[in-house]
Design brief:
9 helices, 5 strands, binds shikimate-3-phosphate
Length: 201
């Protein structure tokens, strides 16, 4: 019996949707001329979303806090305890300056980096800052799961995060655009970042 069906497409062929989105991503990356830098409050998901964004764009990802820990060979809490916050901020600025020279990539910064004038100036000059934001409840819930952050010690986490969020928002607002990172799927947040990039590139 003759087979009346046309031969099926090879399995490796991308679907029209996938081909369209990879063309869209390739065109975005082509227009990108500087590192993407995620800024925003602790607990907002900068590392998780940054990693996902980088893999979507096919770019390297670095977590600035991890790079600081690697350079200093000690945990962030120990840096605060032994040398104080000013010394940590100095190291943070130097590490971020170095990461910004590495070509196209995605960098997740610690929550205080974009609040430091010198570090913010560097990021604004050499990177494309994106503000990742969440509502207060989500932030409090997420940071409550991890007690390692030195700035959350010795006080009520909700009060500290509430005050910090209010104080820092005017600084984060200097980013090129803001994306909400809520409790929904990470892919949805990455899609919103891609939409923001499409509008500003
Ligand atoms: C800080 C946030 C931390 C870390 C340090 C200070 C801040 O990073 O850099 O504890 O000032 O908000 P995450 O935002 O990744 O928690």
């Amino acid at each position: 019996m003759n087979n009346t069906h046309p031969p099926s497409a090879p399995e490796t062929e991308a679907s029209p949707e996938a081909a369209q989105s990879s063309a869209r991503i390739a065109s975005l990356v082509k227009r990108l001329d500087r590192p993407l830098v995620l800024v925003g409050m602790m607990g907002v998901g900068k590392s998780t979303i940054g990693r996902k964004l980088a893999s979507t764009l096919g770019l390297p990802f670095t977590d600035a806090d991890d790079a600081i820990v690697e350079a200093a060979k000690m945990p962030i809490a120990d840096m605060f305890d032994q040398f104080g916050e000013a010394s940590f901020r100095d190291g943070e600025r130097r590490v971020i300056a170095r990461l910004l020279e590495r070509g196209l990539c995605v960098i997740a910064t610690g929550g205080g980096a974009f609040v430091q004038p010198d570090t913010a100036e560097l990021i604004l000059a050499k990177g494309l800052p994106i503000w990742l934001d969440s509502d207060l409840e989500t932030l409090v819930e997420r940071v409550g799961r991890n007690s390692k952050r030195p700035l959350l010690r010795g006080g009520n986490v909700r009060d500290i995060v509430t005050r910090m969020k209010a104080e820092r928002e005017p600084f984060y607002a200097k980013a090129r655009f803001k994306v909400m990172s809520d409790t929904g799927p990470h892919n949805a947040t990455v899609t919103r970042i891609l939409e923001g990039l499409e509008q500003c590139l």
